[in-house]
């Protein structure tokens, strides 16, 4: 099972679950038998840790179910996932994971209502997902525009206003309320979660694209320097002999003043980049490439003095590792570009 797909699905449902919970902090002193009153009762249920009352005024199953559909539609949109194959894989996985994910989030919501907290040690997955994506930074700023549907008096709309720091603005997530069989108002589904997910995903995609372009420019520039240095290295070898002190001195100077200096500068430039969460693995891979290449260069430089077989073997092993890491990084970057 693709861990990234699980992560994406979990992110959406965790966020939706927290929004359901967050509604409760914005309630009204209103008359009975109104949609506003149902929102107030949800708040009071959270305050009193009354799971039964909360479930009476919030149809958690239905809200999570509709939110799941909106979330999947958002992450499989062409704007967010450019590869048709990737979209198909996500769609297939979502059907497999649907029941398990919704049940897990339902349990999280009910435990929160019951205890007033989400314990990190008992919800490591949810906490990790929120921190990884910045959804723990969402701020619920109020409930607005609670209105009964003119065309259907048994249905109403309520906008939950959230501030999302990644898109740097407020966004109204619209919830639908409906009368249940007892004619009481109940929060039953989320209306525009797909639009919300798409907007957040669009920002993340743009940040990722900007990072990949900057990363490519840095690597292309420095790889050219390394290729030129390798040609010069070959020329020095051809003109001299490793048994000669002067040749070894020239090679050592080239290693220290060009190879090592270039990789140190490349590493510095990498550290200056803004790295989106989704690019951290790739970024760390390129940092590791720089560190390994620098270590190899130090070994080569040392070998010019000590002529020890173990020293040159260490250098060659590290160069082989650098090539392997570069191949892995290129494959990962290609996937991210899709």
Write the layout of secondary structure elements.
Elements (H helix, E strand, L loop, with lengths): L2 H21 L11 H13 L3 H7 L2 H16 L8 H32 L8 H10 L5 E10 L6 E10 L4 E11 L5 E6 L2 H47 L5 H27 L8 H27 L2 H29 L1
Antiparallel strand pairs: 1-2, 2-3, 3-4
Helix pairs in contact: 1-4, 1-5, 1-6, 2-3, 4-5, 4-7, 7-8, 8-9, 9-10
- The amount of beta strand, in percent, is 5-15%
Estimate percent helicity: 55-70%
Structure classification: alpha+beta
- Compute the average pLDDT: 83
Number of domains: 2
The largest sheet is: 4 strands, antiparallel
| Main sheet strand line-up | 1-2-3-4
Radius of gyration: 28 Å
The stretches of 5 or more residues where confidence is low (pLDDT under 50) are 1-11
Q: So what's the overall shape?
A: elongated
Q: Tell me the number of strands.
A: 4
Order of SSEs: HHHHHHEEEEHHHH
**Gap from first CA to last CA:** 20 Å
Q: What count of helical segments does DSSP give? A: 10
